[in-house]
Amino acid sequence: MMAPLFSSKLLIVLLFGTLFGLILGVLPGLGPTTGGALILPFTMTLDPLSAIVLLTSIYCAGTYGGAITAVLINTPGTPAAAATCLDGYPLAQKGEAGRALGMATVSSTVGGIFSVIVLVFFAPVLAKLAYEFGQPEYFALAIFGLTMLASIGEGSPIKNLIAGAFGILISTIGKDFMTSIDRFTYGINELSVGIGFIPVVVGLFAISEMLTQSTLLDQVFKRVALKAVKLPSLDDYKKTWKTILRSSGIGSFIGVLPAEGGTVASLIGYSEAKRFSKEPEEFGKGSIEGIAGAEAANNAATGGAMVPTLALGIPGSATTAVILTGLIIHGVRPGPDLFREQPDFLYGIFGAMLIANVLFFIFGFFGAKLFARITLVPNKILWPMIFAVSVCGTYSLSQSIIDVWIMLFFGVLGFFMRRFGFSVVPVIIGLILGELVEGTLRQSLVIFDGNWLMFLTRPIALTFFILSFIALAFPLLRSKKQKN
Amino acid sequence: MNNVQNKKRANKSLPFFFKDEFKVFFVIIFFSTILLISTFTFDKVPPILNRGIQPATFPKGLLVLIMFLTTIIYYLSFKNPWKKEKKLPKPFFLTILSFILFVVISKTLDFFLAISVLSIFVSYNWGEKRVFYLLLVGIIFPLVVFIFFEMILGLRFPPGIITNLYYY
């Protein structure tokens, strides 16, 4: 399984990816999604396995890296670390920053490794199931993915649905892939090939964050001093091992669902840790269980989110959408055939994720103090630099200046979307699923001779539609229950 | 909690067209309508070549769905008004202005120059007044990025008054 990973080149890629991911995770506003999108052009110089290993190691380490700033400056480096702030920072304020980071490091590593084991066993099973899927089933599955995203994602489900539909709409720009008829191109030749994924991702994540930072210039971060990261004590292990295992399970499960991966997983992991805790009153005041619950869950979502990405070609999170783009760019088609035809490639990815989890444990344990210093780079220096990299990275994929302008447009749009409570993640997922949704719908209608009701005669498709309906009804029932 | 309620109350007292809910509703409906109208100009596939639905049908459906959902969130906002957002500060507008400058300069003069101007402009307006750091973000770093992309990816940047000096 690990054979392909013993080449020095892949180990260097893994080391670089883990370090780069940690730096991205530490910097508030950046994260594995933006970082992955920015580094995607460079993966063109690598072979497919090295490219995906690089992206997955950034994903694993970046998800953990968010905890460092969450604990030390009360600002999550990534959205997935938001729940870690709740107890990490209060514990650090009590002079136990090392203990808080030690627990975050251990639980992230356990959660990450647990999820890779889930990935190794569950992805091939799901891939085998996918052989039963025809066009109508894939259409229903994509709809299920989008409704899940709307339902359990951050913020209002209706706003998430609008964002998802908007993402699909963007995917319709350009030549229609079935008939070659221009749609929404308005005579602009560059738009005939459609809107690229990278300009949209970099715009919605990096550039919109730059605009957000421009509104927060008067914000002052109070950094807590850190002497060294400490391994949790035996008492801490006794207190948290159940929480870590539970959150690892929750994170892996949430990750498998095509939703927001780590962010949702950590919030659920945290609230479940509180529910099962013998000391729930300690939560929010520096509970070690709170840190363990959130961190194990968000890292467990990484392996979980890779399951539908590799087995079905449906991303489990925004970062796996970038990884999926990386796979497609390198000519690797995710889905059941990948498991049959290229098992070495897949085991290479699984092994790399496993090693990345061990590597970020080592780097986190010995280097957290150093990584935390990165946050000292002032925004007025950092963000113009990120802009330069974003512009060159976006330009490099198609060597088109139009792509750079599209990136800026989506940056401004993303800022206002976030300002008014629309998550940008559904746009990304909608964009990447758009062709699948439209293609499978149209091909299904050809099969069904235009009869929409025929969808209901396919048991798997019908199941997904029912699940989609439940996913949409769930937030309504939840809000009614809360009102009562 | 009180703060949020106060903000909500403040938003409630505004005339409807000043409220964020209406502005968002109006913008989405306006652009969706324009896009919906433009779908009627898409070419149609002759029946013999048409597989399933016409190319315009799917985007039409999406736009109608977006408009429908937008109407729902606007309707729901009557019962549950959104909290009023803080006014945007001056650096935000200056950053937007720098994007416009970037587009104009990259189109007319030079891509590298556009990055440099934006970096210095943003850094300065965000509070950096030290010349060394302005040069670092405006010239040294973009140059390193430029050369890095050019060497590693063999990328050729668009021609311009400064980029041409590098290439020729």
Question: What low-confidence regions of chain B span 5 or more consecutive residues with pLDDT below 50?
Answer: none
The biggest sheet of chain A amounts to: 2 strands, antiparallel
Structural class of chain B: mainly alpha
Compute the gyration radius of chain A: what is it? 22 Å
Which residues of chain A form runs of ≥5 with pLDDT under 50? none
Which structural class matches the secondary elements of chain A? mainly alpha
Q: How would you describe this protein?
A:
The complex is a heterodimer of chains A (484) and B (168). Chain A is mainly α and 484 residues long. Chain A has one domain. Chain A has helices at residues 8-26, 32-39, 48-73, 82-130, 135-152, 157-171, 197-214, 234-256, 262-276, 288-312, 318-329, 336-341, 343-373, 379-398, 401-419, 425-447, 459-483, and strands at residues 174-175, 182-183. Chain A has a two-stranded antiparallel sheet with strand order 1-2. In chain A, helix 2 (32-39) crosses helix 7 (197-214), helix 3 packs antiparallel against helix 11 (318-329) and helix 4 (82-130) runs antiparallel to helix 13. The mean pLDDT of chain A is 84. Chain B is an all-alpha fold. Chain B has two domains: 2-79; 90-167. In chain B, helix 2 (20-39) runs antiparallel to helix 3, helix 4 packs antiparallel against helix 5 and helix 5 runs antiparallel to helix 6. The relative contact order of chain B is 0.08. The model of chain B has no long low-confidence stretch (mean pLDDT 84). At the A-B interface, helix 6, strand 2, helix 7, helix 14 and helix 15 of A face helix 2, helix 3, helix 4, helix 5 and helix 6 of B.
